[in-house]
Amino acid sequence: MASSYSVLRASALLRATRGVASSTTVSGRIRTSALRAAAATSSHTIRARSSSSGSNRYITSTPPRGQQLDVQEKFADALPIFETMAGTGRHTPQMACFQCEQTFHGTGCVVEGVCGKTAEVAKQQDVALHLVKALAQYAVALKELGADQPLTAEETRFVLEATFATLTNVNFDPARWNEYIERALEMRTQLAKRLQAQAEAAKKPVPQLGGAAVWTPGADFEQAANEVGLFQRGLKTADPDVFSLVELLTYGLKGLIAYAEHAAVLEKTDPSVFDKMYEMLGYLGAEQFDMGTLLNYCLKAGEVNLRVMELLSDGASARYGAPVPTKLRTTAVKGKCVLVSGHDLRDLEAVLEATKDKGINVYTHGELLPAHGYPGLKKYPHLVGNYGGAWMLQKIEFAAFPGPILVTTNCILEPRKSYRDRIYSVNAVGYNGVRHLEDRNFAPLVQQALEMDGFVADEKEQYTTTGFGHNAVLGIADKVISAVKEGKIRHFFLIGGCDGSEGERNYYAELAGAVPEDCVILTLACGKYRFNKREFGVVPGTAIPRLLDVGQCNDAHSAIQIAAALAGAFKTDVNGLPLSFALSYLEQKATIILLSLLHLGVQNIRLGPRLPAFLTPNVLNLLVEKYNLMPVGDVKQDLAAMLEGK
């Protein structure tokens, strides 16, 4: 792995050595010493997101020495979600969540999630995640006492699934959440006994753990959930900037763990990944934070995720062959049908096997479109195409689809009555009232498909192309490099990420449409649906397509490999390439990909349509000053700046 990313990591490692945290307090925008040390000094003021009252917040100087700020007011000033608690007589809201971009008014959900998550499920997720951190604390302690495998493979898979289930639009089923919580409590008890036995065997004292490891939920679930919910955890830190980094690390780890679960499904794991994962989760569980460690862990999470995405890429290619450029149909074919949504290639393969020779056509949906590029999957003649677009359109698309639907991973939304009786979930996915299938037993799905009419006629043929993973692109690297040297390719753009329902996300479609003909667009994840059915043609004077669909969101690995190869060929780093990033942010997988790019030292990333609600102005200022992270803006102005390398 080191060789794969060495070109890109060089500048990041150089920057990481600059500046040592100081314990001396000075005035300035960054009042926290570790933050100030990490950020380059700057004379400009960074505007933060608007408050609910419509006024703008700005990063301000440290209050005069001796002035004491109320903790709640301090948090409300830095993180608008805390405004609901600020002031005398305010109470803890029903729920608190701001882990994704669609959060209410861009500040946070406090009654019900915009995603549809109820206050009950939000509290269950808070408790479950707190217990997962406890399991990680025990894993670290066992490892330190000499345990070769602190947690069994089965226990680690539970940690992966339970954490994955907390991601946006994955699991809304209260009954399933009760099961996760009960299992986590049982595991924590077992691990406590195992730790004592390990200490006795090593003739060492039993480590005294704190935080989540010893937290007792008590009989009142509501009270217990509030104790580990966002508000109380935040106020316990007493510093909104520290808490902002805690949440950045938390959501990054959620994304990392989701990818690790995808890789494990493909039988690709790495014990060192789990050790580092437990180290960081355990640190969060211990609840003893300092700014420097949090900053380092955020970048470390990004580094570990590079290895996880490599495992996932290798696992998919080992099982199905490396993706190849493939033209696929995006309209319906007459016949009975099944729709498979999400990310899981193994589930798609199992559905293809279960429906083979039964007269049932299989369609992909959402993030499974890139499956058509894998030789081991495209060989099935009844994998006839991709139906629909990104996740947020599913209520319309699923209602119109005349067959059963399988949701393998995120995203799932509350099903409409019109298709509630023909939608199924697997793995970490859950919704109350939706039938959950275990062990890839797809017999009910197949039977229902046979009982339904399916599409009664062929639709007009339309196509798109996928399969431009790093192997495919690097296979023509000599042609690409020659085209750059000859001036035929002026610039590369990576335009992609998670899509969403906001109109502001049309920015990405407008940007792609405005990219000059002598430029190449790399795209990935469901953000591609904003423009992937357009005809972009080839770069004039070459046979190189102007639009290259790299794959799913986790195929950011391929994009990074492509960038690394180009950087090596031109003897520069990624920031020296004619390459710009415009990323569409929604949830925690996007968060960890951002951290991976920051670990590699990538500059000038444009992120939108809104910046994460959990970033305080000070933390945002750090990212702006250190990496020139910026929000998306006016398409014409952004495009002009990108073409100038800004």
From TrEMBL:
It comes from the Eukaryota. It is found in: Cytoplasm. InterPro entries: HCP/CODH (IPR004137), Hydroxylam_reduct (IPR010048), Prismane-like_a/b-sand (IPR016099), Prismane-like_sf (IPR011254), Prismane_a-bundle (IPR016100). GO terms for biological process: response to hydrogen peroxide. GO terms for cellular component: cytoplasm. The keyword Iron applies. One of its GO terms (molecular function) is iron-sulfur cluster binding. Residues 45-62 have a biased composition (Low complexity). Keywords: Cytoplasm, Iron, Iron-sulfur, Metal-binding, Oxidoreductase. Its main location: cytoplasm. Residues 45-66 are annotated as: Disordered. SUPFAM superfamilies: Prismane protein-like. The keyword Cytoplasm applies. NCBIfam families: hybrid_clust, PRK05290.1. PANTHER family: HYDROXYLAMINE REDUCTASE. This is Hydroxylamine reductase. It comes from Porphyridium purpureum. The lineage of its organism: Eukaryota, Rhodophyta, Bangiophyceae, Porphyridiales, Porphyridiaceae.
